[in-house]
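Usage

Read records sequentially. Each one opens with the input sequence:
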Amino acid sequence: MVNRGILWAAVALAFAVTGSASGQDSFYKGKTLRIIVATSPGGGYDTYSRVIARHFGRHIPGNPTVAVENMPGAAQMIGANHVYKISKPDGLTIGHFIGGLFLQQLLGKPGIEFDAAKFGYVGVPAQDNYALGLSKTVGITTIEQWLSAKTVVKFGGLGPGSYTDDVPKVLKEAIGLPVQVVAGYKGTADIRLAFNSGEVQGVCNAWESTKATWSKELASGDVILVLQNTPKPHLDLPNLPLAINYAKTEEGRKIIRAVVHTIGPTSRPYVLPPGTPKDRVEILRKAFMETMKDPEFLADARKAKLDVNPLDGATLEKNVREVFNLDPALVPKTREILK
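and closes with the structure output:
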């Protein structure tokens, strides 16, 4: 009797597992999963998403088609708010926007209509390392020259909440960096066009994107990297100075650590609308991490010069929650800097 009971239990479990897998297959089969990218085409966020989209569907039960839709505007808030408020929580829409918006929610930025705690988190493909680059027309090749010359350089920005804006603003306060942010561009591709036309002379960008989408400017020497904004040097940039070493005060170092250093691990989040069924969140988390290890995806990423240094959805969710643990004493100062 005991053996018969064990046998029936095993059969029931097998049917349950098969039924669950079949249900997952039937849901996604023949459907299209959209990745809404909150920037214009041609930048790093768009490039990562399009490379991921070519391979993601193979790892989702039912093998849905994966399409990318660009929804730029309002410093990426249009896309982020759309995913939160309008997209159906059915597991068929994923949002991708700058993770700096999470900090801006904490600081009470007008226009943010989402609650980061309610998104479903899928993962990040890379943890960003930010570098500042200057046009060769400025005539400055080192951070020491820049600080001593007091030359004010115009940087292209997407708007508050984006690293293109927030990092230079923090460094202006913390190390006395002579920089002026010109905000309002819809994506880093637009900033690159403005840089090449002379409209702006500086850029703050993730090195992971820069080496892919600014490869011509790097090769020609039209953009010169002068500073990186990470706790330790990127392996590709062992001799590029670290911003925190130029901080004037302990408060400046704290703000760099709290704002600049925490952006990297959360900067490229892929998220789901609130209320997405938990089983579909888990399906997409698993598929995302499988995609990150897919040899064909990795080959495509190498061709596009994209770094792959992923975090899974659970770790991303934990890191986002850490953003909201900013020292309350630093909140007013940070809000003033990043306004």
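Summary fields computed downstream for this record:
- The first helix runs from residue 2 to 28.
- The mean pLDDT is 91.
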